[in-house]
Amino acid sequence: MKKNNAKKKLLTVSLLIIAAIAALFVTYGIQKLNNKLSKEITVQEAQQIVDSALSELPTSVSTGAKYVLENSKVTVNSLEFGTDKNAILSCSYSAPAIGETVSENLSSYLTEAYAFYDSNNKQGIKTNATKIKLLVTKSLEQDLAETKNVQGETVLEVYETSPGEFSLYLSDETVNTVFGGILDAIELIKASDTIEYNGNTVDIKNQNTLRTGIGDCIALKNYDNRKPDTSVPLEKVWNSFKYDFYRNFIEMDRYTYITNGLATTLAITLCAVLLGVLIGFIVAIIRCVNQKTGKLEIFSDLCKIYLAIMRGTPVMVQLLIIYFVVLLPIGVPKFYAAVLCFGLNSGAYVSEIIRGGIMSVDEGQTEAGRSLGFTYMQTMFHIIIPQAFKAVLPALANEFIALLKESSVAFYIGVADLTLGGIKIRSITYSNFMPLIAVAVVYLVVVLGLSKCVTILERRLSKGDKR
């Protein structure tokens, strides 16, 4: 009877799930087929949407962009409704002819910037893009104040992204048209590779500082040039995920920041593990010999001081001191500084783990080895340490996993590890979720892989005990 009731409940739940999925697909299909606006907008409402979208563009990025945006005007004259939840607007526009202005004066901007750069270079003064920007901005402001407006007719599109909410499609073509050729001007600056200076033709292909500084005077960045998403909510979430994934990892091969960072992290961890095990064994044996025989007392005291320092201070502080205070003045690379720091830190914990394992081996094992004619050190290496290794293997594995995760602070000294790779992507795309989650997932996968390897090793050792 109970089995029949359980089967009925399972069948009921299954039918409810199937019905919910079917309803979801039906709703999705209906929404996909409905490509009309939920409400028709007027010309005045369309004008408000356009004005709001243009006013929200970033205006503080550069003097040129700010001037053009403040002195541009787009007027909606008429509209008609499309078949993709959109309204097609017939507009007239007026904007400062910044494209023409830059085209006419770019040679003088480049010459002025190069003269400034060359003068500073002869004096040993470093010139960056910001200094170039501040210099050229003054000339650009004067030219923009004298420039005439360019006027014309264009077509804009407004899309309904959700019921009652509308978004203007700000394609690059749209932005370039209604703002007087601003993107053409930026491309013209990027394409400049020679200038005339003191009667000579100077190659500036590799002078990115000049082009960047001048480009920053008119740069209009961080606007969304994607077509507004009019899909249903679930599809919109998926589309957003795909776009974020592409922008963070696929575009311009940004995934290499993660892969190269992972390779660096694994290299640091492997080298630090080898160094830590070496140091840990030496320290553990010295302390055990001192504890059991009373010998090596001076070395044992030095080991205690080392342990107190390594275990009593944060690893990040140790890293900063080792690199900036000790190794940077003598020119040691960052990678080796990270390996040394994490190796020394890990060695302190490994030594205590190994010492605990050695001390846990029954004293009778030592006596048995000595009765067979082994010296103390032979007994230690052939009898005690193999047994201690099996006992401390899980603790050692945990220490190695902790070391892998602790290596993430290496980016504080500029090591291009996995964490810094995620931070670089984040700084480029201004996306927090995707890069940081990717870093966390990679760490998790590597740690789970290491844990699985340790489990397999423990099973193999256990089989050896049973034979």
Distance between the termini: 50 Å
Radius of gyration: 34 Å
Question: Going across the major beta sheet, what is the strand order?
Answer: 1-2-3-4
The residue ranges in which pLDDT falls below 50 over 5 or more consecutive positions are: none
Secondary-structure element order, N to C = HHHEEHHEEHHEEHHHHHHHHHH
The largest pleated sheet is described as: 4 strands, antiparallel
Count up the helices.
17
Strand fraction? 5-15%
Q: Describe the oligomeric state of these chains in a short phrase.
A: single chain
- The domain count comes to 2
Structural class by sheet pairing and helices = alpha+beta
Gross morphology: flat
**CATH fold descriptor of the largest domain:** MetI-like fold
CATH architectural category of the largest domain: Orthogonal Bundle
The proportion of residues forming helix, as a percent range, comes to: 55-70%
Please tell me the overall pLDDT. 84
Overall strand count: 6
